[in-house]
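Posting this for the archive.
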Amino acid sequence: MSSIVKQIATLRPRYLLALALLAMPSAALADSDNYVDVARGKALVTAGDCVACHTAPGGTPFAGGLALQTPFGAIMTPNITPDNATGIGSWSADDFARAMHEGKRPGGTRLYPAFPYTYYTKVTRADSDAIFAYLRSLDPVSNTVNRNTLPFPFNIRSSMSAWNALFFTPGVFKPDPNKSEEFNRGAYLVEGLGHCGACHTPLNAFGANKSDKYLQGGQVDNWTAPNITNDARAGLGKWSVDDVVQYLKVGQARGVIASGPMKDVVENSTSKMSDADLKAMAVYLKERGATGSPAPSPVSADDGRMKVGEAIYVDTCSACHVRNGSGIEHVFPKLAGATIVAQDDPTSLIRIIIAGGRGAATDQRPTGPAMPSLGFRLNDEQIAAVVTYVRNSFGNAASPVTADAVKAVRGNVTGAAD
């Protein structure tokens, strides 16, 4: 008997689990399968950062009511808890899959691409079903959301049929047989659930991605979503795979600190994903080459804007970011060679100076670094000068910034730290 006990004790946990499952009645096995689907669905919902859009400030997670700002007006996000009257409690798995893959609600009403079905169409049916299983496991929340907030003529949902014909190609992700399994996993996450291009790709006049500039930078909520291709100047060309993983995991790498919408992505999504998935995403991004625009000639140090900007930087910025722009690791961002500084669009840099900002807080770094608002003490001309200085000092080279550009950003922010 003692030898049998010893043999059982040395069995690996997965074999013990298999024996336990075999001993279960069929109903218990079904419950176990459902538990697996729910657990996997939760991980997939995390990868898709669904909570970010479907949660209003101070609201119940997934109960909707967040106003998404689009070039055509604000769209209120729906309640996706399993409430029968105001959520998706009456939906079937087929209904949910149709929304994910075709951009249609039950009954055929078309969804707007603010819900990124143009990306979610790549998600497999198995993953869609797992996501639905997880959402069905949530507590139902009664929260009626006004889903008709767009002005005429954008409130005519049937017009989306023409938009889809022009800009939407449905179809599940197809792996590239010439690439590694890891690359294809990263592609599936970035191009599908992660819908990274929704922010990091510029839009055309119709609100559709400019496919020829995929992942080369966009704008969201008056922030610059930077170039995340392997472009050497403005993208990830100087980053290693490990750098990208670290940034996604803790919101900091190479002296760069995630802020704005990316802060929320790190806190809600990527910091909670597996290291294997983050590495797969990094491998994919590092193989996404882009020519990018050539670096402009730096503004001369003798330029009046540079002299004014330098004086402001020394007086206001250098105590934290250091005189040579090297910053202080994990506390104050590096400005020398920083991707946020090199972007063609300086919106994020301007916004942070005007309104302040806060870095991501994760389990590994519970307190995110913060920068105070300086918009109350620096006028548009002064901010334009210091941004121009930073973009053309410490080895950086980028186009100068005008006071009018600063004025435009100032009109869109509140002055409160984000």
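The radius of gyration is 24 Å. Residues 48-167 form one domain.
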